[in-house]
Fold this sequence. Notes:
Blueprint: H1 7-12, E1 40-46, E2 49-54, E3 59-63, H2 64-67, E4 95-97, H3 98-103, H4 105-118, E5 120-124, H5 132-138, E6 152-154, E7 170-173, E8 185-193, E9 200-204, H6 205-215, H7 217-225, E10 228-233, E11 238-243, E12 246-248, E13 254-257, H8 272-286, E14 292-295, E15 302-306, E16 310-314, E17 323-330, H9 332-357, H10 371-384, H11 389-397, H12 404-407, H13 420-428, H14 434-453, H15 463-471, H16 478-485, H17 490-502, H18 517-523
Parallel strand pairs: 4-5
Antiparallel strand pairs: 1-2, 2-3, 5-15, 6-17, 7-16, 8-15, 8-17, 9-14, 9-16, 10-11, 12-13
Amino acid sequence: xxxxxxxxxxxxxxxxxxxxxxxxxxxxxxxxxxxxxxxxxxxxxxxxxxxxxxxxxxxxxxxxxxxxxxxxxxxxxxxxxxxxxxxxxxxxxxxxxxxxxxxxxxxxxxxxxxxxxxxxxxxxxxxxxxxxxxxxxxxxxxxxxxxxxxxxxxxxxxxxxxxxxxxxxxxxxxxxxxxxxxxxxxxxxxxxxxxxxxxxxxxxxxxxxxxxxxxxxxxxxxxxxxxxxxxxxxxxxxxxxxxxxxxxxxxxxxxxxxxxxxxxxxxxxxxxxxxxxxxxxxxxxxxxxxxxxxxxxxxxxxxxxxxxxxxxxxxxxxxxxxxxxxxxxxxxxxxxxxxxxxxxxxxxxxxxxxxxxxxxxxxxxxxxxxxxxxxxxxxxxxxxxxxxxxxxxxxxxxxxxxxxxxxxxxxxxxxxxxxxxxxxxxxxxxxxxxxxxxxxxxxxxxxxxxxxxxxxxxxxxxxxxxxxxxxxxxxxxxxxxxxxxxxxxxxxxxxxxxxxxxxxxxxxxxxxxxxxxxxxxxxxx
Length: 525
């Protein structure tokens, strides 16, 4: 490395099991637990890592890729967004079919990524039944309940407490600016739209703010530093939040836009003239035709959009037909979390797929099948038996501990027990719960157990399995067998073991690893 990082920063980020809980990555020490005079006694780059010996005797190992990585932040500022105008969607807006979104993790990830990056996405074919918008929100997060309830109906009301519940045109705006924290996501599900007019529109508020910054930096500055009193009141509610129209982070990057003419209260104090000049200029920018993406919501369409960034609008409509949307609020942090988990699962499944295709193509302990063929045959046997998904997964993954590239196992066939059941289960525990990992952990013990308690079982072992039995400790004695039988995962491990023993037939056609990806994804934590 060309430059040593600050010692306390580096030590605070030590990834070892003494410093961080391996299950969740949370730190096991306080920053003031570290010596004030902490220094690096020695360091060496080795096998793609930096190994450090600290002055207090602790040792740390850091991947060089991690050391050289850059921080992209939380994705909430303009830096992590695709700023757009209407022309950028001339070929179509980001959309997906509801059923595909529900069943295909890649499709769901694409929808959530579009909301994160472009600020919105449209789901089509969402069932046109009451309260279905809540199911959409719950597919990636949680519903934010407000004074409007867990959902609200956007239709003409006889005594509306909000202009949204009339047939009037609504200018581009963000919702609930009088709330802190503001709901960061909004969903609108079209149940019916047979009225003339009532077309929807979106404006990228970050684009509008960036234009204001370019065209009039002093106005941009005024809108970022002036707290605006946003107010809402009706017979049962009184809300107020004082926030700027444009919020920036400490680095000056646009992070949030609150814009709602209907909800701005009385601004008092100095700077009112400068604020109103800037406010008028910004409002005019949001109304520029080239910024407004116009479209019509049809029954079954559900729009998901970022309420801290996008301004939404609608044209006036005639009461010659019915227009009924149901909406709810949710939050970006849950959407970002769901997307991160999807990406994490995809990366894990890709890694497993590579192991099956790469090292899995090698011989399997002297048997007439490859390791991958053996594991796929075991999974196929589990499926044929109608096993629950977690046991199909355990059967598929039971020998993952033999893969050297990830787990560095030793050569079992040279008489060295590589403890592949334990190492495999520990590795899989990053993604799967004990219902999957414990049958994997115990499948070797299950062979030793069956040899002890089931007459004739040992005689049915293959020559290679008989050899590994001796390396792995041989049949259990009575005490060991009784202790094994009491373990919570023992019965499942025995079941997986039987499929393991069957899965050694050459020239047998099985499904590929990709067949099991949806099943594994559904089981992942």
